Amino acid sequence: MFVVVIGLGQVGRHVVRTLEMERHDVVAVDLDPEAVQYIEEHHDVQSVVGYGGSQKILLAAKADQADLVCAVTNQDEVNLIAALAARNLGARRTIARVEGRQWGASDDSTGVEYGLLGVDVVFNPKLLIARELAKIAQSHGATEVIELASDRVEIVAIDLEDDSKRTHQPLSRIPFPDGMLIAAVVRDGDLFVPGGNDVLLSGDRIYMVGLPEQLLAAEDLFTHTREAQSVCIVGGGVIGESLAGTLHAAGAEVTLIERNKERAHRIAEERPGVTVIHGDGTDIGLLRDYDVGAFDLFAAVSGEDEVNLMAALLARNHGAKRTATVVHRPDYVEIHHQLGINTVLSPRQLASDHVLRFVRHRELKSVATLEGGRAQVIEVRALEGARAIGVPLQQLRVPRGAILCGILRGAQVEIPRGNSVIHAGDTVIALATDRAYDRLEALFKQRAF
To answer: In this predicted structure, what is the pLDDT of residue 365?
Structure first.
């Protein structure tokens, strides 16, 4: 596939790096000569220096011949202009990243719009983060929630604490509800796909896949946590305001701390059911005054990583039941986990993953990464003549390190068992480690006769 990437910040660099590893043809574009020079020194791709919304620059990058043009600069208008201009020049598909409040400001926004202003896909990673945090707040202890198959299937991550239930039992003896399965376990930094004889240990992180209506009952098998009834949010930007509105509408008591006085007053006026405090989320006295330890969830989602980390650590030390932070530098995610933060989300990592969903092979519909890339979750269409078709899964040679998690056939969703059979045209949700990815994908391709 031929892809033009406009914008070489952290998102763009990650996309370029991944595309190069997968041997796609790439042209990288940025207005900053130093950003382009960095790409030229670290990657074997073509590059163009210039304004990505310029027709001249787009033609120099051969955007008119591109299979995909993704505009991921830090400026919303540039991304929309570049994507629209590339589409008009003849690019087959375009995708644009936006982050402003004006793009999808409603609380029920999914964070993704199709066909907006003539651009194929416009996505707002900040709204996607807010949506995921709302799902986490409404879960029974999940630290991560990934939506798949148009929200008909979810992946949830659970960290097993010392008092977690069902540890030291073989998975085959745990009474899981129908409609879910454990797809992966992370232990001491290693991710593996478990079998029925494997046992779970305290300290493990498990990834469960299933129907949303079944996963709450599944979470109850492992945790004592319930849905967050009280939530404190630090940061009144796009993420914080959207999250506050969603949780308040769902019935939670929401307190929002915002340092900017004008923004705090505006949110208070527009969100009468939300308690808005003008103050610093890292002010120990302020946190004590509002009894931060009593909140079911404390989410620090400001635009400053240092503020988010400090606020979450203070809240955790004062007894907050669950803590969540937003990290704008993806390489800091693991540090936050090591410091005891339950949920750590990166808008830039999410943006990169979302762009890459539109870059894979045509039969591959979606992709999400787990544990910093140790595993991938895909939605792949089973083509006529593929080896996976017509064979009970218990007889299908699924590669080690992979597991089939869901089968979508029209409006029907099935969490597969050993006797499940895949038909041509089905969409299959699967998880695979890097080593198993290519062999798993091969099961769904047409065989050469």
So the answer is: 55
Residue-level pLDDT at 237: 94
pTM for this model (two decimals): 0.86
Q: Which long-range contacts (CB under 8 A, 24 or more apart) does 364-367 make?
A: 364/441, 365/427, 366/148
**Angstrom distance (rounded) from CA 265 to CA 189:** 44
Q: Which two tokens stand for residue 434?
A: 């890097």
Please give the pLDDT value at position 334.
84
- Report the CATH fold assignment for 360-442: Alpha-Beta Plaits (3.30.70)
| Rg, Å, the chain Cα set | 22
Q: For the chain, list residues with pLDDT below 50.
A: 361-363, 449
* Domain covering 2-97, topology: Rossmann fold (3.40.50)
| Residue corresponding to tokens 């610093």 | 280
> Looking at the domain 130-220, which fold is it?
Alpha-Beta Plaits (3.30.70)
Please report, for residues 25, 52, 142, the alpha-carbon distance to residue 146 in angstroms, rounded to integers and kept in the order given: 29, 32, 11
Query: Would you list the domain boundaries of the chain?
Result: 2-97, 130-220, 230-351, 360-442
